[in-house]
Write a structure and sequence with these properties.
heterodimer, A: TIM Barrel, 2 domains, 9-stranded mixed β-sheet, 16 helices, 13% strand, globular, B: alpha+beta, Arc Repressor Mutant, subunit A, two-stranded antiparallel sheet
Amino acid sequence: MADFVNSKQLPDFRLWKKMRKGRQLVSFNLEVTARCNNNCRHCYIHLPAKGGLVKKKELTLPEIEGIVRQAADLGALWCLITGGEPLVRKDFSEIYLCLKRKGLLVSVFTNATLIRQPHIDLFKKYPPRDIEVTVYGVTEKTYEAVSRVKGSFRAFMRGLDLLLKNRIRVRFKTMALRTNLRELPQISEFCRQRTKDYFRFDPFLHLRFDGDPVRNREIRSERLSPGEVVAVERADEERFGALEKNCDKLIFSEGAQKSCDHLFHCGAGNGSFSVSYDGSFRLCASLWHPDCLYDLRKGTLKEAWEKFVPAVRDMRSRNKTFLTKCRVCPIINLCLWCPAHAHLESGKMDRPVEFFCDVAYARREALLGNNGKK
Amino acid sequence: MESQVFLNKVYAPSGDVVAREVAGEFIIVPIASGVGDMEDEIFSLNETGKSIWDKLSPAKSLKDVARELSVEFEGPLAKIEKDCVGLVQELLKRKIVIEKGKK
């Protein structure tokens, strides 16, 4: 009998290969709010959960439906609902279902503190691709030292238990910051015991998207030193092993990098995009430079994707320091530098960032030292 | 066990899946639990399957579908009926289509 139906698990689906061949929209991040019921010390986006003015700026459900319809028409297959904390929105379920009904695979980033039985019922009937829960600590003291909300640890544990007891697919991540640094091994153990999927940690704390100087000072004070970043990476065998394995591809020999004045050498805008809570289209979640924002309330996603993205990707730098330093740097692949991060750090997309250099050199030392090449 | 499929019955796409075309490929995405057998499963149909799928409707029996395709593609009705039954059997097994009027 003819084989009419081809069934594959997602990672094996031949469509991915096909989609990777050219510039094709695959996925997008939908930041449905910047509000959050936690108030984490390191958060680059947090605005108060009850902020009335912010709420008024948020995309409405019909506006979100319009963007989702356009994204599906352009071929998007995957959407990440994120925030802020997405569950502070009372219409979260409607947003979630609107994405599912367009045939999108849906992931959700949440702190799990607001998970209730109706969310569980929704996720059981209409399964997400995954729910990624951020774990700030595994003791009340540490968790709430990060979240700065009393009772948030208990709410987190209750929400997480609900998800796990109901066998909702959960993945974990944590941010490595000064306040929870000592608890990182316990956090890692806690997460790995509770998921067959991955656990990841991120030692890089982004500065605020809105440039808030007070909060940026706070974020900087939470950053690990380059030596500490390397130490936590080293402690994670899987992560450090991958870095070691790809060492030759990650570190170029001196002079091997060709100079080029194009700002964007990354994949931003090639297969994905991000939409902020107020409808700003960006090539990636971190890219907030005013010249790189497209207002979806005034235009269409098609125009943003087909005309705006190529124009942004064609931006060039005239900054000699950048062109002769970062652009030809043999360890750029170990660096946190990118135009988006540089803008958040310095206000310019083509400026070297000292902290990033320090992390990159610390990583190189750790890697080459291990390989005995130094 | 193979699902029983009859030409005089009506079969239609389930509301628990969404059919889409992505990068020139026709895919069926399960949106509710219980469709398919594995986690993270999406489906695609071959050309014959896609032609049959396009005709499936709550207003037509499978025999009507086969007849339409036979006229459209100027092919032998018996062979097309066999293909229609084969496809619907596979889709029914995975709950991608449902038999209309069946509780």
